[in-house]
Amino acid sequence: MASLPSSRINSTDQQLWRSLRDGDESAFTAIFDRYHRTLYNYGTKLVSDSALTEDAVQEVFIDVWRMRATLSEDINSIKFYLYRSLRRRIHRMQDKYQTAESIDDMADDEKTPMSIAEEAVQIEQESKDLVSRRIQELLTHLPKRQVEALTLYYFDDFGISEIAQIMDVNEKSVRNFIHRALTSLRQNRNWLIGSLLIFWLLLNL
Q1: How far apart are CA 159 and CA 186, in angstroms?
Q2: What is the DSSP string of 93-161?
Q3: Averaging pLDDT over each range in 28-37, 67-76, 175-184, 193-202, which range is the top one?
Q4: Each residue of 23-53: pLDDT tens digit?
Q5: Is 168 left (phi over 0), alpha (psi -120 to 50) or beta?
Q6: Distance between CA 19 and CA 23 in Å, rounded?
Q7: Distances (CA, A) of 110 to 7, 78, 90, 98, 195
Q8: Total-model pTM
Q9: C-alpha distances out from residue 130 to 135, 197, 198, 199, Å
């Protein structure tokens, strides 16, 4: 894929949105590159089926391009729009299809010998994956709504009112989700370890 012009990379959400509505493909590509990964990560907090999540993300972006001319003219945050759209899309897909837990079979394939530098990169990536899995383990005992609210607030930097709109609940409910989640984590004997792991992961994103 050709690299985007620097003007697109540095464009604000509002500039990209206006260009998208005018049919600018480079603006759409910039939006996709900017938000695809974080949108997918959010989707995995809503449903454990990774294939369904990826399909839902792709359909959200397809709809954005297909309906570009009819999109709202003024928008403050593309990220907010995409998160809310993805949540609704996943719920519709869950209602339509019976989803099953996906199990990834990790098979060790024969690989060619790696250089020391390549091994170092692999070790670093495996360490990040291990930390990420440990964080997920600490959150598994929490209800999904609490995990979602916690993720949107601390990891995705949404405000309480924005989270309420994304989750289709009132602001009091959002505050309750976050408070109960933090209370549960603090009562967990692994709270300190979990906090350190989360801090380490954020530094390495």
Answers
A1: 22
A2: HHHHS--------------PPPPHHHHHHHHHHHHHHHHHHHHHHHHTTS-HHHHHHHIIIIIS---HH
A3: 28-37
A4: 999 999 999 999 999 999 999 888 888 888 9
A5: left
A6: 7
A7: 44, 43, 37, 36, 37
A8: 0.62
A9: 9, 10, 12, 14
